Amino acid sequence: MWTRRFVVEYPARVRLVGAHFKPWGMSPFVGVPASELRDRWLPVDTVWQRSVDRIRNQIGDTASATETLRVLEAELLSRLAEPPPRGLDLVLHAGRRLVASGGAVPVGALASGAGVSGNHLAAQFQAHAGVTPKRLARIYRFARLILSVDARCPTGWPDLAHTAGYFDQAHCSREFKDFTGHTPTEYLALRRRFPAAPEFPPDAGPMPAD
């Protein structure tokens, strides 16, 4: 599932700690539009100047994982915007509808249900989630499809595509190519050749959604 992560590495014990954000979850903690962070791997200090050194200094060399997480939590809370950024409530409301429908609700219905135009809704999603609601719906729909695939059993693609909300198998195949670079058949062959570790998505799910 498409999400955002904040990760701090400190070398004393080669340990990583991090925060896992929902698609729109980072918006209250940063002062830039989410679209500027999309598809980029950025050091934390690019957004929060001198944060990593301060966190590492507080952690020290002997901090436990629990203590480290407390420091990270305190840093996040210190940066939590009050009041929430303008438009975030709209994105939360529409985003939860997308989650509940598995990406199947039409974007026009999201906009009309919220009493705003499609362009306004798209602009707010770009600002707070980094992508348009249409793109996010496609991501959730594709995630729903992937989670329904059991690589250990025969796969009926037409039925899976219909259940996930695709118009037909051709539509599903195009989405597969766009998201994975492979056809459904190629993807299934790779899943069988390189099975995921036990209890690791997408073989056992669920993937982060809400």
Residue share in helix: 40-55%
Strand content: 5-15%
| Biggest beta sheet summary | 2 strands, antiparallel
Q: Rg from C-alpha positions?
A: 20 Å
> Stretches where pLDDT falls below 50 for ≥5 residues?
203-210
Distance between the termini: 10 Å
Count of runs of 4 or more consecutive helical residues: 10
Question: Topology of this protein?
Answer:
Elements: E1 4-10, E2 15-21, H1 44-47, H2 51-59, H3 65-78, H4 88-101, H5 107-114, H6 118-128, H7 133-148, H8 157-164, H9 169-180, H10 184-193
Question: Would you kindly provide a written description of the structure presented here, covering whatever features stand out?
Answer:
A two-stranded antiparallel ribbon has the order 1-2. The protein is built from ten helices and two strands. The chain has three domains: 4-78, no CATH class; 88-133; 136-193, Arc Repressor Mutant, subunit A, CATH 1.10.10. Helix 2 (51-59) packs antiparallel against helix 3 (65-78). Helix content is 50%, strand content 7%. Strand 1 and strand 2 form a beta hairpin. With 210 residues, the protein is mainly α.
Question: What features would you highlight for this structure?
Answer:
mainly alpha, disordered C terminus, two-stranded antiparallel sheet, 210 residues, single chain, Arc Repressor Mutant, subunit A
Question: What is the gist of this entry?
Answer:
With 210 residues, the chain is mostly helical.
